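Format is sequence with structure; example below:
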Amino acid sequence: MRSLLVLPLLVALAAGATLDFEHYWTAQEMNEYIDELVRDFPTIATAVNVGTSTEGRPIRAVRVSKNNVANRPLVIVEAGLRAREWISPMSANYILHEIVEHYYEFEHILDNVNFLIVPLVNPDGYEFSRTTNRLWLKSRSVNGNGCFGVDLNRNFGHLWNTVGGSNDPCSDNFVGTAAFSAPETAALRNLIQANSANLALYLSIQSADQMVLYPFSHSATTNPANVAELRNLANSVVLTLMRQNGRVFTSGGAGLLQTPASGSSIDFVAGTVQPDLVFTLETGAGGNYGYDVPESQMAELLSETTYGFLTMAEYVANNK
């Protein structure tokens, strides 16, 4: 595998937009990038309309399939659930940059695996964090009494609202009024269910606890039946991540290494769809809070996260 670029990288798009991995893109720039990918690489990349956010923004995905072969094992990557974790959607876009624009470097993976990548599940919250409140976490649904938003990673339907969330509409961890009450999580659920037949691996990219986590989030003691396989692969990914820049990553059950919380995307997938492999990759940290990674550190973290992703992808290519 070639070395991924960690120096300033410019992606010149033919339509005139110039996107680089030195600055955080707007939601609109992410959409422009998707448009350019599917136009310039039609035999490998296809745009998918996932749904529409509360404020009417499109939620989009890219299906990556060499020669559009449908029946390979599928990897779904979801990013941007939480608004302030800007490095998460940028990581998903960098992964797309690698496996689509440099597809010839990953022939073995692409001969054996298809991908469905959703770079930004929460475009409303992301834009609000960019323009108004850097610390904003939730979506932007109107809850009444001057309160807005749902914590999308507490709104999925497996054991919803049983532990770790809040019923206070003003809380950062507001679980919503019902499972999948947020249009963003409902749209992602529909995408997952529509593609469940071939789903081999589900990956949620979040930031920035420097962890590789497997289900379940709601419990420190409940594990999937194949926990040994999950543990072994998580350990391999951690070793890959730590080899890049020396940051320390840990691995384990999500409910053990973090405060137990129900309603997460990985619990929904593991608890209902039940593919073999389900993970959260918590990226490297930076800035004052961990998730506010300075733009000067972006390229390094994007490369690091992509190496972790590729370790998972190669495992699927070789074993599923």
User: Anything to note?
Assistant: The first strand starts at residue 10 and ends at 12. Confidence is low (pLDDT under 50) at residues 5-18. The chain has one domain: 27-301+309-318.
